[in-house]
C-alpha cells in the first residue's frame, strides 16, 4: 500500500510530510480502495487550500507599477484553490482600469467549483478593510459573494501546470513549489509558459535556487522576471537574494500570522505558541491573534488558557463562525 501511495504522489508531483501521510492512512481504509479513489482522496485532503484575499499585500502593491505599463495582461494562478488570488487580481485590474484574461488552475475539482461560485466566509476576507469588502463583495449575513463585474475576466480549470501550453505575461505560483519535489522540470515548464520578459510571482520568503537559472529579480525577491539568456544558478541575483533574507525585517501582523499558520501546518505548536503569545501582547484588540492563540493552546493541551483566549476572541468578534467552531472543540 505504501508503494501505491508514493506512486500516486509521484504521478501528482506532490511532496507531503510523513506525519500527514500517516494521518491520511489512519483516516481512510486505503487497503480496500482503488488507485483512482485514493488519488481523489489525496487531492481533496492533502493539497493546500487555505488562502485569503490580498494575501502578501506588499506584492500586489509592487505589482501595480508593472501592470500600468500596458493595457492587457494574460495572467495565470497555479494552485488557485478557492479563487481568492484570482479574484484579487481581478479587483486590481479593474481598479487600474486595465483589461486581462486571468486563469486559475488547481488539481482539486472541488475547490475549482467553489472558485467558480465566488462565495466566501469571513476567514477569506479577514484582512480586508470594510471599505474594500463593500467595494468587491455583496454580503449576506456572514457570507461574502464576489460581485459579478469581477467574474467577467476570470476562468477556472481543474488542471495541472503540465497540461498547459498557452503563453502568459504573469504567472503566480505562490506557496506551490514548496510542495513539489521535482522543481527543476516545473521551473523549466514555467519558463516555457511565460512570454518574453514575463513575470513569475512567488510567496513572501520563498527561496528556490533552481529558479535563478531562468529568472532575475530587481528589488522585490517575490517578483521575478524571465531572463533573456539562461544563466548558471550561482548568479549574483541568487547571492543577493540570500542576503536579502538575512536582513532584519519588521513584519506586519499578516506576515506574522502566515508564519504561525506555517508552524501549525507542520505541527510545530511550540514555535507557533512563542510567536502568538508575543503577538497577543502587541495586538491586544486583534480577534485573529486570540483565535490562533486559543487554537495553539488547545493543541498544546492548555485548555484553561485556550478558554480564556477564546473568550477574548469572542468579545472582539462574535460573528466569526470559526471562533464558535473552536469553542465547540475546546468545550467538548
From TrEMBL:
<dbReference type="InterPro" id="IPR011990">
    <property type="entry name" value="TPR-like_helical_dom_sf"/>
</dbReference>
<keyword id="KW-0489">Methyltransferase</keyword>
<feature type="domain" description="CheR-type methyltransferase">
    <location>
        <begin position="1"/>
        <end position="230"/>
    </location>
</feature>
<dbReference type="GO" id="GO:0008757">
    <property type="term" value="F:S-adenosylmethionine-dependent methyltransferase activity"/>
</dbReference>
<dbReference type="Pfam" id="PF01739">
    <property type="entry name" value="CheR"/>
</dbReference>
<dbReference type="InterPro" id="IPR000780">
    <property type="entry name" value="CheR_MeTrfase"/>
</dbReference>
<dbReference type="InterPro" id="IPR029063">
    <property type="entry name" value="SAM-dependent_MTases_sf"/>
</dbReference>
<protein>
    <submittedName>
        <fullName>MCP methyltransferase, CheR-type</fullName>
    </submittedName>
</protein>
<dbReference type="InterPro" id="IPR022642">
    <property type="entry name" value="CheR_C"/>
</dbReference>
<keyword id="KW-0949">S-adenosyl-L-methionine</keyword>
<keyword id="KW-0808">Transferase</keyword>
<dbReference type="InterPro" id="IPR050903">
    <property type="entry name" value="Bact_Chemotaxis_MeTrfase"/>
</dbReference>
<dbReference type="GO" id="GO:0032259">
    <property type="term" value="P:methylation"/>
</dbReference>
Amino acid at each position: 500500500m505504501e508503494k501505491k501511495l508514493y506512486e500516486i504522489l509521484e504521478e501528482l508531483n506532490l511532496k507531503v510530510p510523513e506525519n500527514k501521510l500517516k494521518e491520511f492512512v489512519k483516516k481512510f481504509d486505503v487497503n480496500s480502495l482503488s488507485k483512482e479513489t485514493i488519488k481523489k482522496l489525496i487531492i481533496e485532503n492533502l493539497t493546500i487550500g487555505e488562502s485569503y484575499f490580498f494575501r502578501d499585500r506588499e506584492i500586489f502593491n509592487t505589482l501595480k507599477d508593472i501592470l500600468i505599463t500596458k493595457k492587457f495582461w494574460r495572467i495565470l494562478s497555479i494552485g488557485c484553490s478557492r479563487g481568492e488570488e484570482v479574484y484579487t487580481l481581478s479587483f486590481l485590474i479593474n481598479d487600474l482600469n486595465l483589461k486581462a484574461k486571468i486563469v486559475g488552475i488547481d488539481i482539486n475539482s472541488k475547490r475549482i467549483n467553489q472558485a467558480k461560485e465566488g462565495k466566501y466566509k469571513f476567514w477569506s476576507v479577514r484582512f480586508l478593510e470594510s471599505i474594500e469588502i463593500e467595494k468587491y463583495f455583496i454580503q449576506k449575513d456572514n457570507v461574502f459573494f464576489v460581485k459579478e463585474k469581477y467574474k467577467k475576466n476570470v476562468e477556472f480549470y481543474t488542471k495541472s501546470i503540465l497540461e498547459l501550453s498557452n503563453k502568459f505575461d504573469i504567472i503566480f505560483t505562490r506557496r506551490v513549489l514548496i510542495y513539489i519535489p521535482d522543481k527543476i522540470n516545473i521551473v523549466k515548464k514555467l519558463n516555457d509558459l511565460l512570454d518574453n520578459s514575463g513575470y513569475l510571482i512567488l510567496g513572501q520568503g520563498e527561496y528556490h535556487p533552481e529558479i535563478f537559472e531562468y529568472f532575475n529579480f530587481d528589488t522585490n525577491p517575490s517578483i521575478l522576471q524571465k531572463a533573456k539568456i539562461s544563466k548558471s544558478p550561482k548568479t549574483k541575483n541568487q547571492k543577493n537574494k540570500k542576503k536579502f533574507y538575512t536582513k532584519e525585517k519588521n513584519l506586519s501582523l499578516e506576515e506574522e500570522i502566515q508564519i504561525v499558520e506555517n508552524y501549525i501546518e507542520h505541527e510545530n505548536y511550540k514555535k507557533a505558541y512563542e510567536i502568538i503569545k508575543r503577538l497577543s501582547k502587541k495586538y491586544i484588540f486583534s480577534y485573529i491573534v486570540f483565535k490562533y492563540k486559543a487554537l495553539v493552546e488547545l493543541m498544546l493541551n492548555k485548555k484553561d488558557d485556550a478558554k480564556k483566549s477564546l473568550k477574548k476572541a469572542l468579545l472582539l468578534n462574535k460573528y466569526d463562525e470559526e471562533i464558535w467552531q473552536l469553542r465547540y472543540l475546546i468545550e467538548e
